[in-house]
Amino acid sequence: MNLHIFHNITFLDFAKQEFELTNEDEKFVIITDQEDEIDDKEFFSQLSLREFIKINNPQRIIIHYLDGVKAKPIIDSEYKGYIHWSAWGADIYSPHFGFSKKSLYLKKTKKIYHKLKIRSQENIVYRSLKLFRPILGFAFKLRYNHLHNYYYVEQLLSKVNSFSTVVPTEKDIIQRRVNGNYKAFTYGNIKTLVPEKLRKMKDIELGDRILVGGSATLSQNHLDIFEITGYEINAVIPINYGEEMYKQYLIDKLSGYKNFILLTERLSYESYIELLMSCGCLIMNQLRQQSVGSIVLGLFLGMRVYLNASNPVYKFLVSENFIVFDLQKDFSNYGCSPLTKMEIEKNRKCLSDYWGEESSEKRMRNFWD
């Protein structure tokens, strides 16, 4: 049995569809405070998960997003088997790999970070200097009689046999610490990420708005985008999930602009697609991999996609011959002008080559080889 551990239902169904192609016995569980079973989804507490691992000794454990909550029951169970880590993003861009949150922010956003005093709300062990973490960790153990989550993750990293990342260009970051083999994996493919009615449409008519960012997280670097584009653009700005304090800051800062649509409530997937189609251009300014689902959709729809050139997603897409643009260098030249039909078709061909159903199936058939 292969045991898949999640902390919420995000991407669980996508993972199920992909791993079913391996033709192995797969069990998917969600770690939470209370044990339950809802709609065929099993919820385990840390303690019950530890005991389940001890009793059943899975052939493999697949961790979907690595954090201390998942690492603790695995370490405490003294599991000696095969561990695969499927990284999402935030679990890579962390102090475990030399990142501080502030290192992911550009000039304007760093000022917001300090102004809102967000640092004071972060976990003290994670935000402390590396030199002081052992001292803080020792004090935590004395107080609570178990290791801090930071150290459970540290221990588990040394046990990882293989790992996956959202884009292959993140592989080098993980290999700074992890000796395991890299296995390509995507949460979903074109068939599951793009609605059928859109896949059947030959020509998709887009609007003239610009989608700016993907969430209310500081790593989106919103105000640094407007330093480049100006505040006159017709922008759709999704801030319906993320950091509440930053979300309120953006509402206060941007709601006075009548040409901005601030998306503050969650939409159905269909409504979100409709909103996307009102945009002919997409801008993401993260220094880290984030919002890849929106980027894939934007490329399929035929949007002109701008990314920060330092983003591993940009580097990957360029290496795969996608037509994408460097926000800093290219926006002043192209703005929100539409792509040609040839450019749109080229991006769709590149999407099919990597995120297509056949490509996905081929990867999964040989995933454990």
List the helices and strands and how they pair.
Blueprint: E1 2-6, H1 12-19, E2 26-31, E3 36-38, E4 41-44, H2 46-56, E5 60-64, H3 68-76, E6 82-86, H4 107-115, H5 124-127, H6 133-144, H7 149-157, E7 162-164, H8 171-174, E8 181-182, H9 190-193, H10 196-200, E9 209-212, H11 222-229, E10 235-238, H12 244-254, E11 260-263, H13 269-276, E12 279-283, H14 292-301, E13 304-307, H15 312-319, E14 325-326, H16 327-334, H17 341-355, H18 357-365
Parallel strand pairs: 1-2, 1-5, 2-4, 5-6, 6-7, 7-8, 9-10, 9-12, 10-11, 12-13, 13-14
Antiparallel strand pairs: 3-4
Helix pairs in contact: 2-3, 3-7, 14-17, 17-18
Taken from the alpha-carbon principal axes, the silhouette is: globular
Q: The CATH topology of the domain at 190-355 is what?
A: Rossmann fold
Name of the CATH class of the domain at 190-355: Alpha Beta
Number of strands: 14
Biggest sheet: strands side by side, in what order? 3-4-2-1-5-6-7-8
Radius of gyration: 21 Å
Q: Ranges with pLDDT <50 over ≥5 residues?
A: none
Count of individual helical segments? 18
Helix content: 40-55%
Could you give a short account of the major beta sheet?
8 strands, mixed
Determine the CATH superfamily of the domain at 190-355.
Glycogen Phosphorylase B
Give the assembly state of these chains.
single chain
Q: Report the span from N to C terminus.
A: 16 Å
Nearest-integer average pLDDT: 90
CATH architecture of the domain at 190-355: 3-Layer(aba) Sandwich
Structural class: alpha/beta
Proportion of residues in β-strands: 15-25%
